[in-house]
Design goal:
The chain is mainly alpha-helical and about 400 residues long. Helix content is about 50%, strand content about 0%. Helix 7 crosses helix 9 and helix 12 crosses helix 13. The protein starts with 15 loop residues before the first helix and ends in a 14-residue tail after the last helix. InterPro entries: Cro/C1-type_HTH (IPR001387), Lambda_DNA-bd_dom_sf (IPR010982), RNA_pol_sigma-70-like (IPR039425), RNA_pol_sigma_r2 (IPR013325), RNA_pol_sigma_r3/r4-like (IPR013324), WH-like_DNA-bd_sf (IPR036388).
């Protein structure tokens, strides 16, 4: 008796960001995919954000619909995904993305917005282990910090124009990362997690209220770099962040859109508009512009600008971990003190509050000319005249027995 063969293994799905890119490449909306697969639009959105994955027949239908069943090339992982240093200079020839330069040589450059980005490895395939086996949490955190903090500080400086703020933003992000290390360690891109936290803190509008951050730091002395940094800081925050992530860090367009919480079309528009605005202010373009794709990318100029500027060196990783633990301890103590104060105020209120209802007494009123029993009432003008006359006739003897009313 022969055993029947089991079901054929299903093809692994691409990453959530790649699923969204494939859907948008076919010009399909979430509602159209949901209607074709037989689910709701919220379910499709959960599949594209990584909160859930399709199974069974819906998985096969979804795979055929977005066209990810055929084998795709695996995207080369950038140094930022691995957490290595960023913003290195490029050699002659085609300039790769500044964040994709490694010690062994340049990695492939990021494609322009109108070209499809290479696919990322499917989630079912084995990926890099954020915390290698045999390393403690402290050692894994220190390794991530040592590989990402210097380059991330230079990125934040290009984003804000403040050296101290860039250092402060990176420290703040790594403190939060240490407090949430189990979540960060299991994330698909721990360096991207920290980068997003650093950017959010650095671009907070509350920093404008600080006197030391109302003006940017002195611009570079070199005219070309001064013009580039001035043009970069003159962009809107969303355009500046999109340009830095795509042309500076080297992320693909879907990854840039996901990190900036925008659609792929909106991110592409911001990128093209930012490139055009910067190209108008630069004395001469560093790379020739392509008439079909618009202004040229700024990989090389951003890399040269980041490396030429002196930024504060990040502190040691143990100091940042200790600072994060200290901040967490202070917040814990503050929460406990607030809880004790709230409990004490509640207990005092319960102790001093009345235990039964007391009906309020109505004010006394005159009934039929009879004064109320509520106590002496206010004297009338006639009563005041009589009182004054009696006080004036007390010394006259018998006449006080028959008072004369004036």
């Amino acid at each position: 008796m022969t055993r029947s063969a089991g079901p054929a293994p299903t093809a692994p799905l691409p990453s959530p960001k790649e699923r969204r890119r494939l859907r948008e490449a076919k010009e399909l909306s979430e509602q159209q995919v949901a209607a074709a697969v037989g689910v709701t639009a919220a379910t499709v959105r959960a599949w594209e954000t990584g909160r859930a994955s399709p199974r069974g027949r819906r998985r096969a239908a979804y795979t055929r619909l977005i066209g990810c069943a055929e084998p795709r090339a695996t995207q080369s992982r950038s140094v930022e995904a691995d957490g290595s240093s960023t913003m290195s200079t490029a050699g002659t020839g085609t300039l790769p993305a500044p964040d994709t330069l490694t010690a062994d040589g340049p990695a492939p450059a990021t494609p322009p917005p109108d070209e499809p980005a290479p696919a990322t490895p499917p989630p079912d395939e084995p990926g890099p282990d954020p915390q290698p086996r045999g390393l403690t949490a402290e050692e894994a955190y220190d390794d991530l910090y040592g590989r990402t903090a210097p380059g991330l500080t230079r990125q934040v400086f290009l984003l804000t124009g403040h050296r101290e703020l860039s250092r402060e933003a990176v420290q703040h992000a790594f403190r939060i990362a240490w407090q949430r290390w189990p979540e960060v360690a299991t994330d698909r891109d721990p360096a991207g997690w920290v980068r997003a936290a650093s950017y959010e803190y650095a671009m907070s509008p509350w920093h404008r209220l600080r006197r030391s951050h109302r003006r940017t730091d002195p611009l570079p002395e070199d005219p070309a770099r001064r013009a580039l940094l001035d043009a970069l800081l003159g962009l809107p925050p969303s355009y500046r962040r999109t340009l830095l992530l795509h042309d500076g860090v080297g992320l693909g367009l879907p990854e840039t859109a996901a990190e900036t919480e925008a659609s792929t079309h909106a991110a592409a528009g911001r990128l093209l508009n930012a490139r055009a605005a910067v190209a108008e202010l630069l004395p001469a373009p560093a790379d020739p512009a392509d008439p079909g794709t618009g202004p040229a990318p700024l990989h090389g100029p951003l890399a040269a600008l980041a490396l030429s500027e002196e930024v504060p060196a990040p502190p040691a990783a143990p100091a940042v971990r200790a600072g994060g633990e200290r901040v967490a301890e202070l917040w814990t103590r503050a929460a406990l003190c607030f809880g004790v104060l709230l409990i004490g105020a509640t207990a005092f209120t319960l102790h001093t509050a009345p235990t039964h209802y007391e009906q309020p007494l109505a004010p006394a009123e005159r009934v039929g000319g009879v004064p109320p029993l509520g106590g002496p009432e206010k004297l009338t003008p006639q009563d005041l005249k009589l009182q004054k006359a009696l006080k004036g006739e007390l010394a006259h003897g018998p006449e006080r027995l028959v008072p004369r009313i004036p």
